[in-house]
Predict the 3D structure of the following.
Amino acid sequence: MGIAPSNLLPDGRGFQVKATWRRFHPLGKIGLAVLIAIFGAWLILFVTKGRFLKGPFERTVTALTERHTKVKGDFQLYFAPFSIKFLAQGLTVANPAWAERRSLFTARQVDARIAPLSLLFGKRHFYSLVLDDAAIDLEWNRAHDANSWTFGDGKGGKPLTFPRIDRASVAGTRLRYLDPRMRLLTDLQFDEINSIDARIDKTVGVNGTGRIRETPFRVTAKLYSPDETANRGRNQLSLRAWAGANVIDVKGNLPSVADIENVPLQTQATGRDLSELLAIIGVLIPQTRTYRLKSQLVKDGEVYRFTKLSGTFGNSDVAGELTVTNGGRIRLDSELTTRRLDIIDAAPFIGYNPDIVEAKGAAAAAAATGAAPNRILPDAAFPVERMQAFDAALKWKIGVVRSRNVPVSNIDLSLALDNGRLALSPLTFAMARGKVAADIILDARQRPAADSYDIRLAPTPLATLLAGYGVAEAGTSGMIHGRIKLAGRGDTIHDSLASATGRIAFIIPQGSFWTRNVQLSELDLGTFAYKMFQGRLKEPVQINCGLVAFTVRNGLASTDPILIDTRKNVITGRGGFSFKTEALDIGMRADGKKFSLFSGQSPVGIGGHFGVPSLNVISPELVGRSGAGLGLALLASPPAAVLAFVDVGDAKSAACGPVLAGAKAAAQRTKSGKPRDDVRPKKR
């Protein structure tokens, strides 16, 4: 009987091998076959370096990412032996069709060794990476619901993450970032990066340029992390940016190279005008003088929180917190406190340039806004488009306003800006131991803007209110309280008041009034009182009651009435002023209650303009004609009465009742109860 040669080994063990193979379990045979196949595949890949997989790689990545992927040069993909060796020369990964740039990623060469299991489980882990002449383009779409680095349908815009890299050599890398909603574009160039055991061996520098909205900027940054891992430990960031006349510094410790979410960063900003800085992101605030601010910044998605804010603007201080929400519409929320506010720094709140106010005065600042000569009301147009571009809420408390003539303190301001409607309500402050409460609305939703002013003055001592204008505190015990209620239309403060209708009334209850005959203001109250009271002020004027009131129609204010009853005289006035031209034309006279050969008081005229008022001794005839030049005497039918401005209070004199009630001229009575004919406009 013959034996087949294939079943025999030289030592005669062929039968044993074949028998052993037959005794293997079927699963064992499959496993062994798989191992042999894997080894064969590994051997083939190792020998060929996987170059034949170039085409399948391009097709597979293109299908998985929905981005066209191309390798122009050499390609390698194989196990070596326990890591994946990947090399691609001229690698290009396309951007989505909506992006401005065609390529998300290009590189002259990518050479990496990758931990195999990290591609399946957990965060990607590179044992080594060599990256030469790479360009990365990161973009958000205009709807801000997709970005270029989130593959697939791209909806949701996942955050940018980096793999762990143990050893790296990166040279000639550029990064471009575009966010249409923020209108932000940056183009950054990175210094060469070398790392060992995930630790960067030296400081990494970044330099670049960009544009945010319409403002170009440049930036330089350094990443200090010689003792920490680049993706798991502390990465000390130091960044400085220049935008216009502003310098911004940012410092902090990042948990990874690209992770700034919920990371406290120390920020500092300096510049010539804080409004220029916030205008970069489309936020409108009044102009400021040179500022210096510092705070802690934490970014949480679309919300940027600036806490522990402190610093100065001009000669004033500020502290508090600020939140900027960059959603579909920018919103600014802030709570601020100021211990001392310089009156010059407050000038921009009514439209003045503070530098001009400080150097040349209010008239020059008004002229700079386009106001005509002799005017002080600013004529700068409200920035309606910018007011409608963002929303804001502000609460601001101010301790003291530094001013020679305006005794203001304890300001409590609430501001709300909603799609172009600006409300300062409530606005309260102390003035000379009295209290002012105001509600001011500038509604730019309507064109031209609908504006209203409601300002209430609680009982306030005349002595401290007018101390800077020649009034002596010793000997002055009088009080004053009143209300200004106006409504107009216009896109500037001047235009809104020039079209305003309403009423102004200031009431003086019983008290005394004394002035020093020294010139302490442009409108010298000392000289005014000196002329009104026969040139002799040897003792305080004893006031029974007084009312200085105007009815305002279409920007023209007519006395309604001016009536001050003193122990010896009755002071009356006719005329008024114009918000349109800011001209003053008021005649005042004091009639003695008792006959005297020496009474002969000379009537006094208040003329000129708001910015440059004048005092003149005038004839009795001119007192009767006062206001005619402004057309005020023609206001025979003033608008409907405003409801009681001030409570009547404890008025005991019948003649003082209408005065203390703030009643109009037609309601005024003599002490005997007869209608007064000396406070009504002369009929024409």
The chain has three domains: 52-263, 297-424, 432-668. The two ends are 154 Å apart (CA to CA). The chain has a mean pLDDT of 77. The longest strand covers residues 125-139.
